[in-house]
C-alpha cells in the first residue's frame, strides 16, 4: 500500500510536470521520457493492485480456515470431555462387577456343595422309582388287555342293536310308502284321464283360432310391405324433384346476378372475342360446376343405399 501511495504521488508529479512542459513549450525529447516513465509507473501500479487483491483473497481464505479449525478444536474438546465422563462411569461399573463376581463365586461354592448332596438323594430316589415303575407297567399291561376285550364286546353288542333298530325303521317306512304310492297311482290315473280329455278339446279349438290369426297377420304384413315400398319410391321421387328444383333456382339466381353485373355491351364484346353468339355465351355461363355434379351423384348413391336398407328390413323377420 505504501508503494502504491508513492507511485500515485510520483504519477501526480509527472502529470504536473508534463502539463507545465506543454505550457512552456519545451523540447520534445524530455516529454517522451516523461511519458515512458508515466507508462512504467502505471504498469507498476497495476501489478501492485493485482498483488494486493491476491494477498487479500489469501488472507480471507486463511481466516476462514482458522475459524473452521477453531470450531473443530471446540468440538473435539467437547468430545474429549464426554469420553472422560464415560471412562469414569465405566471404571465404576467395572469395580462393581468385580465385587459382584467375588460374591457370586462364594455363593457358587456353597451351592455346589448343596447340589452334590441333593444329587446323591436324587439317585437313591430314582432307583426306588424305577423299581416301582416296572411293577406299575406290568399292572397297566394287564388292565389294557382287559379293557380292550371289554370294549370289543361292547362295540359288537351296540352294532347289533343299531342294525336291528335300522331294519325295523326301514320296514315301517317301506310299508307306509307302498300304501302312499298305491293311493297316488289311483289318483294320478283318474286325473290324467280327465286332463287328457280336456286338453284334446282345448287344443283343437286353439289350433283353429291360431290358424285364422296367422292368415290375418300374413295379409296385414303383405299390405304393410307393399305400402312401405310405394312410400319409399314416392319419397325418393319427391326428394329428387326437390333437389332439381333447388339447383335450377340456384342456377337462375347466379345467371341473373351475372346478367346484372354484365351489361349488354360487355356480353356482345365477349361474344365477338370468342366468335360465339350471345345465346351460346349464356349457355356457357349456365354450365354446372364439377363439384355440384359430384354432389348430385353422391346424393343419388345415398338414396339408393337407403332404398336397399329398407328392402333388407322388409325381407327380415
Task: Tell me what the structure shows.
This protein has 317 residues and is mainly α. The chain contains five helices and no strands. The chain has helices at residues 2-24, 28-261, 264-274, 278-285, 290-315. α1 packs across α2 (28-261). The longest helix is centred in the middle third of the chain and has 234 residues, at 28-261. It starts with a helix and ends with a helix. The model has no long low-confidence stretch (mean pLDDT 81). One of its GO terms (biological process) is centriole-centriole cohesion. Residues 1-25 have a biased composition (Basic and acidic residues).
Report the C-alpha radius of gyration, rounded: 67 Å
Class derived from helix and strand content = mainly alpha
Report the uncertain regions: none
- Overall form: flat
Count of beta strands: 0
The number of helical runs is: 5
The overall average pLDDT, rounded, is 81
Strand proportion: under 5%
Spell the H/E element sequence. HHHHH
For the biggest sheet, the summary is: none
Residue share in helices? over 70%
Termini gap: 115 Å
Question: What is the fold's blueprint, element by element?
Answer:
Elements lengths: L1 H23 L3 H234 L2 H11 L3 H8 L4 H26 L2
Helix pairs in contact: 1-2, 2-5
